[in-house]
Amino acid sequence: MAEATYVPRFKARYRDELMPALMDELGFTNAMQVPRLEKIVVNMGVGDAIKDGRMLDAALEDLTTITGQKPVVTKARKSIAGFKLREGMPIGAKATLRGDRMWEFLDRLVSLALPRIRDFRGLDPGSFDGHGNYTFGVTEQLIFPEVDYDKVLKVRGMDITIVTTARTDGDGRALLAAFGFPFAGEPAERAS
Looking at the whole model, is its pTM more than 0.70? Predict the structure, then answer.
């Protein structure tokens, strides 16, 4: 008897429902032309790490909890005397998600985290980079339900970049809208 393999919910939904719908909507003739997700990069800047090393450790722990994998410590590329910053000092953390972890993170982001943002009016539809990739920032890590409020040393924000294979911003926007991203000025579509 063959063992059933786990497929993330958004991955199955993309393959079964969204890909054919996007093919029709965008007018593609080949399934390989349809934009898809490549990776998701979650970046957290920790400027306080210059004065207090515990802040970086706390940020690494939060990012590990949120993404499910160990983040990489980012270091300063050049010295800036006004900030008492030297080249090579640790100033942040980032995690690059691919494969099933990427799909699971996207599912949690759209279904759980974004609806928990206070005074949320939608994501900026103008934050595409010209190549179909989308970057936005969140002001606090507490929007993710897996982060324990009592263990947080300091509330800090993060940048989330969604890298797609879309060639244009319109194609990238269509892909993310199909997943249920709540862009400002558009009617909210419920992700199921």
Answer: yes
